[in-house]
Amino acid sequence: MPETMTPLSEVTPPHLTPLWERQDCHLPNKPDQQTTGLLGCASCSLPCPTPPMETPGLVVHGEAAPFSTALRSLVNNPLYSDVRFVVGQERQEVFAHRCLLACRCNFFQRLLGSEPGPGVPSPVVLSTVPAEAFLAVLEFLYTNSAKLHRHSVLEVLTAAVEYGLEELRELCLQFVMKVLDVELVCEALQVGVAGQACRWSPCGGLGYMASPVSTRPPSFCSQIAVSFGLGPLQERCVAFIEAHSQETLRTRGFLELSAPALLLLLRSDKLCVDEAELVLAARSWARVGAAVLERPVAEVAAPVVRELRLALLAPAELSALEEQNRREPLIPFLVPPKT
User: Fold this and answer.
1) CA gap 48, 228 in Å, rounded
2) What's the whole-model pTM score?
3) Which of 6, 41, 126, 136 is 20 to 30 A from 24 (CA-CA)?
4) Distance in angstroms (rounded) separating the CA atoms of residues 19 and 26
5) How far from 51 is each of 18, 37, 42, 220, 297, CA to CA, in Å?
6) 153-205, pLDDT tens digit by residue?
């Protein structure tokens, strides 16, 4: 007669049997907090079961490259776009996505805060930022990266400052420091002095228009630069120009400097150039400003000429300057009074 087999479901290994159900343990039938734990009980010295602890979740990360590529494909893509911009003097239409811009940038959160009305919403006009720079800003907002170019990095930097994008601003500053040269340094100095607050050239790289006959002192512009995080750029540009003075004075960028930016240079004691050459450079700068603003050369030059150190000129140079000043007034105190 076959033996009676005990079902496996009724067989519990001793190490899985609760202590209070085992015959070799003298615990009460119902365990409590004082008689259970990992250290066991005094009567049997066996470990007592402990309720399982809930472990915290673990954040896992997928591949970043496919995610960034997918978001980059949405830059200026009308697919699912719910906001349009008209940017730059060329009035280029740019498509974007409201929720992404608002969550990434406080500037756009305020700009796009109101719900669009029924029908096709009107485009948002941003005429002061060039289209190429604005697209670089969008690329950064969508992917946290951007492709920078030497010819447009200062425009991207100015936009980053205006929109309060500190990380993009720092990336632009690092790029400018690497590519700084004689042709770029004056434009970079202009941005470092005060961003667009002191820009005056109608044909320079940034495209912002202000007056070279600015009433803002250099200290005011320096405070703006510091508050915008551009102080290191200003210092680096001045140091570069001090080391490459003659080459810099011959560039178009020098002729397009604002008065506060030029004053910073004229007040430097480390320019590697004779004072006579500096006077000629200041005259050329004033002529360009006079042509742009349709004002007399002496009026345009007034904020900066008092920083010229005429006492350093040789007697022959000073006589030549006085003669030229009669033909084309530049320095007011060298113009003889009218009789």
Assistant:
1) 64
2) 0.71
3) 6
4) 9
5) 12, 9, 20, 67, 89
6) 999 999 999 999 999 999 999 999 999 999 999 999 999 886 544 433 333 33
